[in-house]
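Hey,
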Amino acid sequence: MDQSTVYPVKLYVYDMSKGMARQLSPIMLGKQLDGIWHTAIVVHGDEFFYGGEGISSCQPGGTMLGAPNTVVDLGTTEVTEEIFMDYLTSLGESTYRGDRYRLFEHNCNTFSNEVAQFLTGAKIPAYITDLPSEVLSTPFGQALRPILDSIHIQPPGGNHFNGHYGQR
């Protein structure tokens, strides 16, 4: 294979609140939040994300969330699809099993950030990764934490990634 082959890497950003966070956060949290962010990495023709069921994949924009609110160009990677699938299999069997999901500490954005760094060396935007601490820094966020900690987000429409990606 030609060593100079590069593949584009995109970050798909979805507002899980569909605009409600922007409207309600000043009242509920006393500070402005632009969204409740779900992210996914798009590379090698598919969208990959992490949720309460583990790592999943779908066609880009193929979950029930529809089209992303924003697409961030993370650059390119020389990581081949085969190497990437091996990497995801390893993550799915360890760090990113479904039972390891935590809304604030270990979520879709943690996954996207780690995968982005593996593929491109770049992190995802800080406004996304800083969101949990923004919420938890408020009295309302602290009060809701026990409830929010029990929530596992899994956007409907993805296929659970089981390491046998090539056998569709």
